[in-house]
Specification:
The structure holds 2 protein chains of 2 kinds. By secondary structure, chain A is mainly α. Helix content of chain A is 68%, strand content 5%. Chain A has a 4-stranded mixed β-sheet with strand order 2-1-3-4, sandwiched between helices. In chain A, β1, α3 and β2 form a beta-alpha-beta unit. Chain A is elongated. Chain B is of the alpha/beta class. Chain B has a single domain, classed as Rossmann fold (3-Layer(aba) Sandwich), CATH 3.40.50.300. In chain B, 40% of the residues lie in helices and 24% in strands. Chain B has a 6-stranded mixed β-sheet with strand order 6-7-8-3-9-10, with helices on both faces. Chain B has a 4-stranded antiparallel β-sheet with strand order 2-1-4-5, covered by helices on one side. In chain B, β9 and β10 form a beta hairpin. In chain B, α5 packs antiparallel against α6. The longest helix of chain B has 16 residues. The chains are: A mainly alpha, B alpha/beta. At the A-B interface, α1, α8 and α14 of A face α3 and α4 of B.
Chain lengths: 401, 259
């Protein structure tokens, strides 16, 4: 049985690796396209951020106190444009992106400021455009500036600015021990989702052709005439598909790594990531690999079952697309999760392996939890494999016409 | 030796098929209680129109599908319960079975030889012999997708025979072949018969059946309408050739002859 399994596995792998077009579309193109897309995204995002930072915010307003105008003049990133603007005209000009921010002070601002103990508080209104990055940045700058202005007024009221200083707050990030330093949080959130999607995508394209395609072309039926058990035939296909999925994932991942010099800005939480910052040991890689194998087993058998049921490549594609969506949802759930993981999560297929991968990357991997997830995944893989074998024996599945 | 006893095969119909048939019958009987025996050293012909049940019978025999009722015995092995042993004994060739066109004839033949658990040396010997006989040798390293239709058909024959089976089941073995290659195939079947093999062919070509088969079964609507040597069939139908005998039986069974 093992010999036949190896013969079929080798044939399936040969089918993939001797087909130049398949190698290019399954391994080379994903790597290059991911590297290119991520690099371009990183470059564009960085350029956009640089543009926003370099932009001098144009502020207009009414009844602005001299002190505030002086503060704006002192700030090189803000340019105050003098002029009389009514509120509505000013808002239109901001929406048109002629100016970035409008600030309106109560005409009796200074009087009300002086009579603060008995009268109503003076009002300052600010307006910005939510559709313009420059305008939103101007809003942020003006809020900071007005807070500074408020501190100045308070200091004048109290008479001594030092009265406002009630404590010195000193904060620092705790130094994480070397052994569980992990990697950047942003990368740790993103990588499990990418790995998961890359594995599924890699197995999907070739799995559909290897099973539904062979059924459609009649080549699988020729193998059914050999003395080999049908379970061995599907087993050989599943093993080869797992190898292909892993290679495809690695190739796609290399694509991400190539893009890091450009994409670190948006991939990592700190905005800068270098390989040298990684602090993962051999045991971490082992736990990561076990979690990955759990995913590979499930994905490949899901694809096998759905391809078996389908009568054509087209039909298989239609069946597998919803499964792909589920894989993506699981990835997003993990990526945008709150970070709190209940013990039951380690029994939820797919999600459990993603959580483990994330924790390993953050330096919090636990072999016990990894093994619980692996066993859960293995049970499902075996059930799906057994279902595939049973489907191979079903006449309606193998010979639908 | 092949022994088929009371073979029956029914297929459940889908709702779409039931609607197309305009009745409420939920299944179709493709083969209804047929029995026949094929001896060693014999070529047995199955003749019948499309949908008569020939391919279903052959599929059951090759263990691709399971009979609803009845039994099949191939050289002492029981049909479906000893499927692996049965498949070791037989070669089954039909147009529905295809070879992966990405590979070369040599790789494909070796692959199937290995699946039959043959030693590499024996695979090479058998392969070289069959390649030479069927003229595949010059194309042994050519991708199957680049071969002509006839060459693909010949390669399918080679692949099906690589393990030197004792029982050979060929569904339309000469269809799609040029006259020279068709002759090579029929000659090879005669050779195999002389080696003591048990052979069943299904064909639409009456002249092929007349020249090749020791005995013939004419099958229609899942039933065997006539079975015997050519002389026995001629005597039964009162005709002097297989073509007319076939149409005689076809018309008698309610079919409409267009001759």
């Amino acid at each position: 049985m093992f010999k036949s399994l190896m013969i079929i596995t080798k044939k399936e792998l040969r089918r993939v690796f001797t087909d130049k077009r398949l190698v290019i579309t399954s391994f080379v193109l994903p790597m290059l396209s991911i590297a290119l897309i991520y690099s371009m995204m990183g470059y564009m995002i960085q350029r956009s951020q640089d543009d926003i930072e370099a932009h001098v915010s144009k502020v207009i307003g009414s009844s602005i106190p001299i002190a505030v105008i002086d503060m704006m003049d002192a700030d090189e990133s803000i340019e105050f444009i003098p002029g009389a603007f009514d509120k509505n005209t000013a808002k239109e000009l901001i929406l048109e992106e002629t100016y970035d921010y409008y600030i309106y002070f109560d005409p009796e601002f200074e009087d009300k400021l002086m009579a603060f103990e008995s009268g109503p508080l003076p009002v300052i209104e600010g307006a910005y455009s939510p559709k313009s990055d420059q305008s939103m940045n101007a809003n942020y700058k003006m809020r900071t500036l007005l807070e500074e202005y408020r501190q100045t007024i308070l200091a004048e009221r109290i008479g001594d600015a030092s009265y406002l200083q009630v404590y010195d707050l000193v904060t620092s990030s705790i130094e994480i021990p070397q052994e569980n330093q992990g990697i950047d949080r942003g990368i740790a959130n993103l990588v499990p989702m990418l790995v998961s999607i890359f594995i599924f995508a890699g197995a999907m394209s070739i799995g559909i052709d290897s099973i539904a395609g062979e059924k459609e072309r009649g080549t699988i039926a020729t193998m059914l005439l050999t003395p080999v058990d049908r379970g061995v035939i599907i087993g050989g296909k599943v093993i080869s598909l797992s190898v292909v999925a892993l290679i495809s994932m690695v190739s796609s991942f290399i694509g991400v790594m190539i893009s890091i010099p450009f994409s670190a800005g948006f991939l990592s939480a700190s905005g800068a990531f270098e390989m040298s910052q990684m602090s993962l040991g051999g045991f971490d890689f082992l736990m990561f690999f076990i979690s990955m194998i759990g995913l590979v087993g499930m994905y490949v058998t899901i694809i096998s079952v759905l391809s078996m049921i389908a009568n054509s490549v087209k039909e298989a594609g239609a069946y597998i697309t919803p499964a792909y969506m589920m894989v993506m949802i699981a990835g997003f759930m993990n990526m945008f999760g709150s970070g709190t993981v209940s013990s039951m999560s380690y029994y939820i297929p797919i999600y459990n392996n993603l959580v483990n991968m994330q924790q390993v990357l953050l330096g919090d991997g636990d072999l016990g939890r990894v093994m619980i997830s692996f066993v859960t995944s293995s049970v499902i893989t075996i059930v799906l494999l057994s279902l595939s074998r049973n489907l191979m024996h079903k006449e309606k599945v193998m010979f639908p016409s | 030796m092949i022994q088929i006893s009371n073979l029956k095969k029914t297929f459940n119909l889908s709702k779409k098929q039931m609607l197309a048939n305009e009745d409420k019958v939920k299944f179709k009987t493709a083969v209804n209680n047929i029995s026949f025996k094929v001896n060693d050293n014999e070529i047995f012909g199955l003749i019948g129109p499309n949908g008569a049940g020939k391919t279903t019978t052959l599929r059951c025999l090759a263990t691709l599908i399971e009979p609803t009722e009845g039994s099949i015995n191939v050289n002492g092995f029981e049909g479906h319960s000893q499927g692996e042993s049965v498949r070791r004994e037989l070669a089954f060739l039909t147009n529905e079975l295809k070879l992966d066109t990405h590979f070369t004839p040599e790789y494909t033949t070796k692959f199937f030889g290995r699946l039959h658990d043959m030693p590499e040396r024996l695979i090479d010997e058998r392969m070289n012999h069959l390649f030479d006989y069927f003229g595949v040798t010059p194309f042994r390293h050519t991708k199957i997708s680049d071969l002509s239709t006839g060459m693909k058909q010949k390669l399918s024959i080679v692949v099906s025979l690589i393990h030197n089976p004792n029982v050979i089941i060929f569904d339309e073995p000469t269809t799609g072949l040029d006259i020279i290659t068709a002759r090579a195939v029929t000659d090879y079947l005669k050779l195999l018969k002389n080696e003591g093999k048990t052979i069943i062919i299904s064909t639409h070509m009456m002249h092929v059946a007349e020249k090749l088969c020791d005995r013939i079964a004419i099958i229609m609507d899942g039933d065997i309408k006539a079975m015997g040597t050519l002389d026995e069939i001629y005597a039964l139908t009162g005709q002097d050739n297989l073509d007319d005998s076939f149409f005689q039986l076809y018309n008698n069974s309610g079919g409409v002859s267009n001759v």
